[in-house]
Structures are given as C-alpha cells and as structure tokens.
Design a protein that fits this description.
This protein is mostly beta strands. The chain has no helices and four strands.
C-alpha cells in the first residue's frame, strides 16, 4: 500500500444507560501523497473523492511527530 496510511480515530463517550466511560475507535485508510507520515504521528485528515475501494480520506497535514 504505497502512499496509504491507516489512521485510527479514537472517541471517548459516556454510555447513556450505564454511565461508564467507553472508548471506541475506527480505522480509516488515508492517502499520503508525499509519503512523509510515520507510525505514531498525529495527523489531520479530510474527506475526498473515492481513491480506491476503501480509501476516501487524505492526510491534510501532520500535527505532531512521534518521538
């Protein structure tokens, strides 16, 4: 998968009935044209036209690098 990154989006919310904190995440495939992001980077993604069967997002910019 050249120029493709798998981005994990995490969401934390309180369950309405049980009032427990629930962590949920989803994995999206995003296009990285410059091929510059690395594992652990925080990135900003935006929706775009379908680029492949599963890829509908692109990396807009890298917010912070992994240490």
């Amino acid at each position: 998968m050249q120029k493709t990154r798998v981005v994990r989006i995490e969401r934390v919310y309180r369950h309405p009935q049980y009032e427990r904190v629930v962590r949920a995440s989803k994995r999206l495939k995003a296009h990285d044209e410059a091929n510059e992001s690395r594992v652990g980077d925080r990135v900003l993604i935006e929706e775009t036209r379908p680029l492949s069967k599963e890829k509908r997002w692109r990396i807009r910019k890298i917010l912070s690098r992994a240490s």
